[in-house]
UniProtKB/TrEMBL annotation:
A Pfam short name: Glyoxalase
PANTHER family for the chain: CONSERVED PROTEIN (PTHR33993:SF10), GLYOXALASE-RELATED (PTHR33993)
UniProt name for this protein: VOC domain-containing protein
InterPro entries in the cross-refs: Anthracycline_SecMetBiosynth (IPR052164), Glyas_Bleomycin-R_OHBP_Dase (IPR029068), Glyas_Fos-R_dOase_dom (IPR004360), Glyoxalase_6 (IPR041581), VOC_core (IPR037523)
PROSITE patterns, per the entry: VOC
Segments traversing the membrane: none
Organism: Streptomyces radiopugnans
Domain VOC span(s) in chain numbering: 12-128, 142-265
């Protein structure tokens, strides 16, 4: 499979989007933290303006305005690739999930929807053969891992298998934690043999105010410094920096409470 085909394989995270109550403040926060710059343009799931986050000229994410009247917490959503967004949306409904937006056409180059799995975790669906996805795994300031944090991993395993054709297997280690003994309820998700993300069951430790959610991990040069910077910028440190088999990581939240993680893996940018 070519690199381009792998990026569009069903179930592969190919885009990241944040709907914020104050997009300007969010843009400032992530610019100061990761060095992102912005270009205005339409974005998935909202009629309001969206701003594409750029790093060294490459698109890495999107920040947009939370629609008025929508009663939901700001959160980063991964958009999972699909060969047919309409079919994927129908499978979401048949498998116990919900579709909140779309499917709808965007920019004439892709078809998207926003959905939630049976545990309530929101995510996007993205169908395109022509538009490149977000730059991922390309060094500091880019997303290197996407993980679903939920009550019990096995409860959503079949959902992602059926909707996107993802395969899963037990995983003792990944970016999310420090080892098999610490958190045994974990799955690695693969698409055509390529690792594309993970699922972590945390039981009663699942945040009651947020519930199941997808968590993005962004590469940084120094995890401890990044965590301190989050707090200086008005965000919060949810889990202090700690070592894992894949690098030093910390779970944090931005000014509006959208959770994400920072990690130093030591990888070189592509």
């Amino acid at each position: 499979m070519t690199e381009a085909a792998a990026r569009h394989a069903p179930g592969t995270p190919s885009w990241l989007s944040l709907l914020a109550h104050d997009p300007a403040a969010s843009q400032e926060f992530y610019h100061e933290l990761f060095g992102w710059d912005y270009r205005q343009g339409p974005g998935p799931g909202s009629a309001g303006p969206h701003f594409r986050a750029l790093l060294d000229g490459s698109e890495v994410a999107c920040i947009g305005q939370m629609p008025r009247g929508r009663q939901c917490l700001p959160a980063w959503l991964p958009y999972l690739s699909a060969d047919d967004a309409d079919k994927a949306a129908e499978l979401v409904r048949l498998c116990g999930g919900t579709v909140g937006v779309g499917p709808l056409d965007m920019e004439g180059t892709m078809r998207v929807a926003i959905a939630a799995d049976p545990s309530g975790a929101s995510f996007g669906i993205r169908q395109t053969d022509t538009r490149p996805g977000a730059r991922m795994g390309g060094g500091p300031g880019t997303v290197v891992w996407n993980e679903l944090v939920t009550h019990r991993a096995s409860a959503v395993e079949k959902f992602y298998q059926t909707v996107f054709g993802l395969e899963s297997e037990p995983s003792g280690e990944h970016l999310g934690a420090g080892g098999a003994d610490a958190e045994p309820d974990r799955l690695t998700l693969t698409a055509h043999g390529r690792i594309v993300g993970g699922v972590r069951g945390v039981g009663d430790e699942l945040p009651h105010d947020r519930g199941s959610h997808w968590l993005m991990y962004v590469e940084v040069d120094d995890t401890d410094a990044a965590a301190r910077r989050v707090a200086e910028l008005g965000g919060r440190v949810l889990l202090p920096p700690h070592d894992t088999p894949y690098g030093r990581t910390a779970r944090v939240a931005d000014r509006e409470g959208a959770p994400f993680a920072v990690v130093h893996t030591g990888r070189r940018g592509s």
